[in-house]
Amino acid sequence: MELIKAFLPLIGVLVIWLGSGIYFSAKIKRHKESLVKDSSAPLNCLTLARGVEPTNYLRKYIVFVDNAVVGEIGSGETKHFELPAGNHTISVKIDWCKSMPFKFEISDGKNTRLQCGANYNNWKCMFMHAIKPAHWVYVKVA
Hints:
Layout: H1 2-34, E1 45-50, E2 61-65, E3 68-73, E4 78-82, E5 86-94, E6 97-98, E7 102-106, E8 111-118, H2 128-131, E9 137-141
């Protein structure tokens, strides 16, 4: 009986952890199903899309274009940023983890589509933000 009492706090923590995991898995699944595909492509514009992933699900990324903050992007969102024609660099940041700068070009009469997200959506996400903060999030061609 004493042994069972000793493990009650551990069992309680495990039940809460498992329950929250099940809850957020179902919430993420519902979010993915409810997304409406944004196929609009405004001209002379950067379109940045972020997928729905369990890592950083509740948090927004800060978007930097040419080292200036231009906005935020949440999980499952697609944002359009009007930029002048020419070469630019983009990166996204969450906490101390900032992606590597990605170079892209805005052309007259065209839309540039990029995608951002987290590189680690498995067990590695528990420690990779501390080991490789520059590789935690990414920006790439959609």
